[in-house]
Amino acid sequence: MAHEIDEGTAYGLPEGGYERDLVEVGRGTPGGEWLRRYWQPVALSSEATDLPKEVRILGEDLILFRDGHGRPGLLYPRCCHRGTTLLYGRVEKEGIRCCYHGWLFDTEGRCLDQPCEPNGGQKRHLHRQPWFRVEERYGIVFAYLGPPEHRPPLPRYDVLEDTAPDRVVHATTRTLQTGGPEVMDCNWVQTYENVADPLHAWITHGMISGPQLGERLAEPPDDVTYEPTELGMRSLVHRNARPDEPENTAVLELILPNVSIVPLEIHREDGRATALAWHLPIDDTHTKIFTVAVIPPVHRGFDSTKLPVFGGKPWHELDLEGHQRFPGDYEAQAGQGRITFHSEERLVSSDRGVLLFRKQVRRAHAAMAQGKPPGPQREMVVVQAGRYGENATAWSPFGSLKQEQIDSDA
Ligand code: FES
Ligand SMILES: [Fe+2]
Question: Which ligand is nearest to the CA of 101?
Fold first, then answer.
């Protein structure tokens, strides 16, 4: 008997693939070299101690420690003598001493002592343990893993500098909003593109699992536009006035290559957001998000890992069914797989922010391929993200919020 031939089945589906230049973070890859032109967070300051710590960043394994003078150091793990790991080194006042033959290295890799050599090693100055420069700010140890001749200043962010006296600048590797694991088992771009995709908020955090991040997300925004900025891009999420909410525009910002700023309920008087996130690629398939936030006294001691926003439970208490019934950001982003298949995507009009981001990445890579800087860098970054009301007399980082939609640019 004749029967209908099914269309669109998964039979013969080609194997998926991804845009390597967009996602890869290793040395020598376009994406990895781009990320290496910027300071990256390595660890919380509290994690740099007299006990050496293994850290992995951009696919490189390194050893972090803090010497007796309080200086953090970040060294290549294999001792330059005969290769044992400095993880078992002993931290001393002047540096870290290898457990095998006792070579002592300072935080910049200089060899200060070779106890098995006559006179502590007459030629010790010829040996240097490979190292990276680090600087501490906002409770985070930042490192520069790129070509030394291109090292920019470690940037400051104005909303983290100019804070009210009763507020503290707090660093964490826990998401501020809904808990979740410290390490996401997926490529960093999946976590970053999420911020260029604000429409997901009313679906994931409203329609599907809501309210996860406030009642506001129960309804879709009235307008969303995406625009390039000097340092990246911003998404403008506009809501018309409602009985319980005045007209307002939330501005989400990406500061390339990997800082994001989302307006939360805590913000400044002028509406600007005060929580910045660095989406640190541990390697191609793992991501750690470092957040620095300005915390008012009332929120001190707040623990997002205990927020019961997943059907009445915190994220860490969910079983599989809980993750299925109340998915959040982790499920959506890690659910795309270790590295999502770009070949299987169907990008549509609501993906304009994602398209704009990818276009900017390709432009940065192209600039570097021509020997140019990937983009502008600022010593003091003026944050634009925030929530701005219709009648706000508040400071606004740009003129009219209702600017032309830049579809053509996306
Ligand atoms: S292997 Fe480190 S001092 Fe010999
Ligand atoms: Fe989200």
Answer: 1
Alpha-carbon distance of 112 to 97, in angstroms, equals: 9
Fold match, 39-136 / 152-389: no
Residue 179 has pLDDT above 70, yes or no: no
pTM value surpassing 0.90 = yes
Measured by CA distance, the residue closest to atom 1 of ligand 1 is 82
Ligand 1, closest atom to CA 80? 2
**Closest ligand 1 atom, CA of 79?**
2
Q: Of 364, 368, 361, which Cα lies nearest the Cα of 23?
A: 361
Indicate the domain borders of the chain: 39-136, 152-389
Residues in the chain, total: 410
How many angstroms separate the CA atoms of 63 and 184, rounded?
A: 21
Distance 115 CA to ligand 2 centre (A): 55
Residues 46-81: tens digit of each pLDDT = 999 999 999 999 999 999 999 999 999 999 999 999
CB-CB contact of 22 with 342 (8 Å): yes
How do residues 244-297 score in pLDDT, each as one tens digit?
888 889 999 999 999 999 998 777 888 899 999 999 999 999 999 999 999 887
Handedness of CA 275, 276, 281, 285 (dihedral sign): positive
Pocket of ligand 1, beta carbon within 6 A:
79, 81-84, 98, 100-103
First-residue to last-residue Cα distance in the chain? 50
Separation of alpha carbons 201 and 195, rounded Å = 10
Pick the CATH number of 152-389 from 3.90.380, 3.10.50, 3.30.70, 2.60.40: 3.90.380
Q: How far is CA 195 from CA 38, 169, 218, in A?
A: 20, 22, 18
Domain 39-136 listed as CATH 3.30.450.40? no
User: What is the full DSSP assignment across 136-199?
Assistant: EETTEEEEE-S-GGGPPPPPEEHHHHS--TT-EEEEESS-TTT---SEESS-HHHHHHGGG-TT
Query: Taking residues 192-199, what's their average pLDDT?
Result: 97
